[in-house]
Amino acid sequence: xxxxxxxxxxxxxxxxxxxxxxxxxxxxxxxxxxxxxxxxxxxxxxxxxxxxxxxxxxxxxxxxxxxxxxxxxxxxxxxxxxxxxxxxxxxxxxxxxxxxxxxxxxxxxxxxxxxxxx
Length: 118
Prior knowledge:
Layout: H1 10-44, H2 50-87, H3 95-117
Helix pairs in contact: 1-2, 2-3
């Protein structure tokens, strides 16, 4: 049986794949929450004014953007980690975590503004 580069580090590759799939689930959940807020707002006709409508639209657009950014960067992260595992040069990268965290704080601020100001 021939041993491939990936087969030397099966556990690490499986963990990398699980992490990637967790990021994908998180991205889909973020997008889903945005769609839910927009749908609830416009289907209930509550607080229908220009400012709240714009805020809800911003929440929807931002949630989709955050989800797409998470998918793109997690895919790049997965591919890089795969290569680093095989080369035994793995280093932890926090850029994705910081980026998504900052964007989620912005979205949380918009949620706060929507729910408590309107």
